[in-house]
User: What shape does this take?
Amino acid sequence: MTISYPGFDELRTGQRLTGRLTVTEAHLVLASGIFGDFAPLHVDEEFAKQTAVGARVVPGALIVGVATGALGKNLGPNVERCLDQQVRFRDPVLPGDTVTTVWEVVEKRDDHVVRLDVVCTTQHGKVVLEGSATFVLAG
Assistant: This one.
């Protein structure tokens, strides 16, 4: 079975690319170790209970990775490089939350540069991340 990924020529302005992932305890632990982010808010349950959120929070860098991973799953090898990425964190993600990512193609340029906007929400409909990215695409 061959998987076909849309290239530059197949993408249309307004087209949406989506993904979904339930963020587990394992994701949180692995991300903290990989990023070296052992902030008590991420790894210390007793500390986190005392915060406004009242629970441990998944590192923001992991949510950026989840969003970018959804784009990679949709475009595959046609992504030649990322030129920029900007994100705003709107609400925390907790272990066990299911994050749905929606990328929308907002601009295509003749030099194969594509700009996309992204929104990530939880299963409760809370927006946890908004942003945009610019990529160079093949095909």
The mean pLDDT is 95.
